[in-house]
Amino acid sequence: MTFETVEIKAFVPAKDFELSKAFYVDLGFEIAFSDGSLAYIKAGECAFLLQRFYVKEHAENFMMHMLVVDVDTWWRRVEQSGLATKYGVQASPPQDQPWAIRDFTIKDPAGVLWRIGTNIDREG
Fold first, then answer.
1. Residue 2, Cβ neighbours under 10 Å: how many?
2. What whole-number distance in Å separates Cα of residue 23 and Cα of residue 27?
3. Domains of the chain
């Protein structure tokens, strides 16, 4: 017997559902499906579900991590689009982390923290 899986997705909270959808599109995601309470949001083969649900304590303690091929390209998009200013969110530039990932952080409009990064070689 095998326990095959197809995918796993998080349900990400949104305080302002429409604003959060716009934020994710500006960040580089696409909305594959959306109705009044749920949106299927993806970038390449990676996806999550944005939900019209908000509890401040939950949202501000929720974190997503996404590995990308080139973190600096993603960061340039954040900078060039003025995403942090446009949505009034916090963003910190890429840094090499001790866990062998170069990543940056950005909060979405609900306070969800995203770490977007690339694996780096720590040997040599």
1. 4
2. 6
3. 11-119 (3.10.180.10)
Segment 48-86, tens digit of pLDDT: 999 999 999 999 999 999 999 999 999 999 999 999 999
| Span 28-52, average pLDDT | 97
List the structure tokens of 55: 């509890």
| 57, two tokens | 């304590």
Q: Contact 92/83 with Cβ under 8 angstroms?
A: no
Tokens 């299927």 belong to residue: 40
Tell me the C-alpha distance between 121 and 15, whole Å: 38
- Find, among 24, 29, 22, the residue nearest to 45 by Cα: 29
pTM above 0.85, yes or no: yes
- For 47-92, the DSSP string reads EEEEES---HHHHTT-EEEEE-S-HHHHHHHHHHHTHHHHHT--EE
Looking at residue 2, what is its pLDDT?
81
